[in-house]
Amino acid sequence: MRHLPYILAFASLSASALLAQNFPGTWQGTLHPTRANAKDLRVIFKISTTDSDKLQAVMYSIDQTPAPLPGTVTGQTPNIKISIPAAGSTYDGKLSADGNAITGTFAYGAAQLPLNLTRATSETAWAIPPPPGHPKSMPADARPVFDVATIKLSKPNAQLSILVSPGGNQFSTTNTSLSDLIAFAWKIHARQITGGPSWLESEKYDLVAKPDIEGLPNDTQVRTMLQKLLADRFQLTFHRDTKELTVYTLVPGKTGPKLAQSTGDPNGLSGMGFRALGALIASNANMKDFTSLLQTMVLDRPVVDHSGVAGRYDFTLNWTPDESQFTSLAGLKPPAGNADAPPDLYTAIQQQLGLKLESAREPVEVLVIDRVERPSGN
To answer: Of 223, 312, 306, whose CA–CA distance to 267 is shortest?
Structure first.
């Protein structure tokens, strides 16, 4: 089998409604080449739906290359055909009655090999190797701290940001209040923080900190380092309580989730950012990451994950914000509406992600501030 080239594009393709309902997900199986001394090759197909319920597909041959290979998807349930032009290959398969297996044939050139696929879960999915140059991860069992940290008052009207450098050697924030930092460190909304002085929200800081261990930290390591820093530099202490609050809940939509499983490190950092207000790009993100971003950056109340969706995903979400959203980003206005503008947030979540955001009132955990001081000197 020829070496599969490095290609980065996804292909969005027409498919029937039944295809779109039955085939999205991660499928994996092993090819057994017949030529002498040929090694078995593990193959992964990731199939997902677009905003218009069409299918998009990408294939990985993970024992050869981490490169994603785009393909075209056709067929009529229970049959599916995936063509991979870059590899000169096609896959023809038939879905099992329970929807969790595909029996089929992988063809490349004149060769045709059996390839049976199973639907992968977050626990059974094979890891896809990172591309060349991907930063080395910090050991998962490491307990890093911020070895060097500077904290200073922010310039007026600076834009709020919280960033981990690509190599993981620096954590920085701009124009963040202590309330923002606490909310990020413990993945909560500002309304879940009670007590403390008025400057908890009004004074804004720029923070730059460097871990004492090399490598890209995972999500838990980043937040734990920040928790330790807040205790050390702000003398922060608190206790936990429960309080009934008005919240948003993220729940399954009528059609079920429309999410493409991520190929990133399941223990690594998520990537969550905006190209513009209402244009979200998420990579290697779980639903807790998503709800945390919504409650921190977008909405005015806590967002609780009741979606039941496990694992990490890559997705985009495009909507037209209203005046109640992004209030923490002072000075930035939502784009003006026009005939081609995307829908509101609630409609966009249903149409594009297959989930639903509902208003509710329920008990949530709160942090009650017992002690806090302005930051100690650098």
So the answer is: 312
Q: What is the CB neighbour count within 10 angstroms for residue 340?
A: 5
Read off the pTM. Answer: 0.62
Crossing angle of helices 178-186 and 219-233, in 10° steps, is 140
Residues of the chain with pLDDT under 70: 1-21, 50-53, 86, 109, 131-134, 328-339
* pLDDT > 70: percent of the chain: 88
Report yes or no: 152 and 206 within 8 Å, Cβ to Cβ: yes
Upper half-sphere CA count for residue 242 (Cβ side, 13 Å): 4
Domain assignment present for 218: yes
Distances (CA, A) of 102 to 37, 92, 311: 27, 9, 22
Burial of 180-199, coded b for 16+ CB within 10 Å and e otherwise, reads: bbbbbbbbbbbbbbeebeee
| CATH label of the domain that carries residue 38 | 2.40.128.20
| Distance spanning both ends of the chain, measured CA to CA | 59
Could you tell me if 26 and 119 are in contact, meaning their C-beta atoms sit under 8 angstroms apart? yes
Per-residue pLDDT tens digits for 189-210: 999 999 999 999 999 999 999 9
Look-up of token digits 């779980």? 286
Domain assignment present for residue 2? The answer is no
Q: Does 101 lie in the same domain as 66?
A: yes
140, part of any domain: no
Please enumerate in sequence order all residues whose Cβ is within 8 A of that of 125, keeping only pairs 6 or more positions apart, or say none. 26, 28, 44, 261, 311
